[in-house]
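ingest -> validate -> predict -> emit
validate: passed (alphabet ok, no gaps, 385 aa)
predict: started
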Amino acid sequence: MESLSVPPPSWMTEDLTLLQEQTRKFLAGELVPHLEEWHEKGIMDRSAWTKLGEAGLLCAGIPEEYGGAGGTFAHETIINREFALAGLDSIGAPLHSGIVAPYILNYGTEEQKKKWLPRLATGELVGAIAMSEPGAGSDLQSVRTTAAKSGNGYVLNGSKTFITNGQHANLIIVVAKTDPSQGAKGTSLLVVETEETPGFRRGRKLKKLGMDWADTSELFFDDAKLPAEALLGAEEGQGFVQLMRDLPQERMIVATSAVGMIERALALTIDYVKQRKAFGKAIAEYQNTQFELAECKTEATIGRVFHDHCIERHLKRELDTTTASMAKYWLSDLQNKIVDRCLQLFGGYGFMDEYPISRMYRDARVQRIYAGTNEIMKVVIARSL
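emit:
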């Protein structure tokens, strides 16, 4: 599904091209046929996580010594783009592999890495990260969940909401205050293995505007008892710093999803307007249609080139938070704009749920909200002026 005439980026190697082909084939054969079923049920089958693990599509950027595929974030990017091109916009694997696993790799002790990463790579463990609370979204310093010392461990109390993978996750990184008096400096990350944690319970799967089969949920911790080893890393109070260091990668995951959906929307729309007739000729023959799609393709091309440039910088560890924020905000805004214009070209059919463009319109909206709202992105950018 190549709707743009953009040459491969400089970081696109032969093994990445092969990964792209293999991923596309696997998704088309194993996951895409279940989309309607998941859409109706409102949740992806748990078995899909195991299939992804068996296919090597989980934790592709994690070293082989910890059970991963030994790749880089380029491998994660290729896989994530294929998710978007295949219409798997609700899948929680990009967060699992590109956010949860790297936190453990980058900040965990050797014992923690060996304990959790191999099981994340196989899909035995499904990862989630619990940041947002009913009273704290983008403002992480306002987190009220606490992890109080108790004997040789912690007692976790609080609630989280809007948690991706919330119904399936059995390994959850929780943002909590280990010392509420210290503000941001008193924040730590604790890893909860749900099956071994009394006091943990899942709330409802949240009903949303889009992302229908994403198991976004509420989570509750009521005197949940955790061992000392649940603290990510060896020192308390490092949570806020850990979160800030990994933000550029999280924002690029959103940017990749945006670019993938843009390309899919354009491909589907171009195909549709060539077939759909009005007043005796194909919609594609009308100048209005041609101008609309010409503008969309131009803007999409600019977005794709900027995205690829940012990925290159990130692979070199040169991507700063400001530029990553630009990519997240601008590409998710562009995603919503282009999908809206494409839906208009579908006319009444674009408003029907059975047409993919309708679902894309709904699914795209959250991209401007999660991983830091686009307004927060602009604040970050403004600080660099």
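The mean pLDDT is 96.
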